[in-house]
Amino acid sequence: MNNIKIKICGIKTAPVLDCCKDLGVNYFGLIFYKKSPRNINIKKATDLINIQKKNNIIPVGVFVNHNFSDLIELINITNLKYVQLHGNENNNYISKLKDKKKLTVIKTISIQKENDLKQTDLYPNADFFLFDYKPKKNELPGGNAKSFKWSILKDKNIAKPWFISGGINKNNINKLLENTTPYGIDISSGVEDRPGIKNTNKIKEIVKIING
What we know:
Distance between the termini: 5 Å
CATH superfamily: Aldolase class I
Strand order of the largest sheet: 1-2-3-4-5-6-7-8
Order of helices and strands: EHEHEHEHEEEHEEEH
Number of strands: 10
Low-confidence stretches: none
CATH topology: TIM Barrel
CATH architecture: Alpha-Beta Barrel
Mean pLDDT: 93
């Protein structure tokens, strides 16, 4: 068994969350982006967070260029401790967020070519990076079921611990593990029947493969 952390993103229902908890999944993502089929409202998100308060699975709020004051209000309501910034938020935004609330911040870096890794230098105040497929103009910021070339990350020395995401499923997870050594793997579309609808059997399958 390896020590790679697992994050299942875009969870919207208690049965799926319970499945993740029972499997030892480390993080679950709550997406607060209205254009996403995985979007969740504050009430449902708070209910899921409260369900898991006594367990070791960590809720992560996922945001895309969210209005700063609205984000602070949402954090106050939900009591989130982890946020993932999946838009064009800069290091100043991260600094203000961490000054205002005691948060752990995951900053997404969109990857298409090796040179894109230099973007990590722009976010010294982030706690983690998440490397994802670089979306095209008409695509969502994440959850497109598409991957970048994972070998770009092979043997790279990254300044902070990092997650990897983008089109990961049971058919390609072994290839990913051969090419990368992430802190964590972030999975969404690869455990769905259709966008926004998670399949607990698919979650079980891929967690089993990751855990060896």
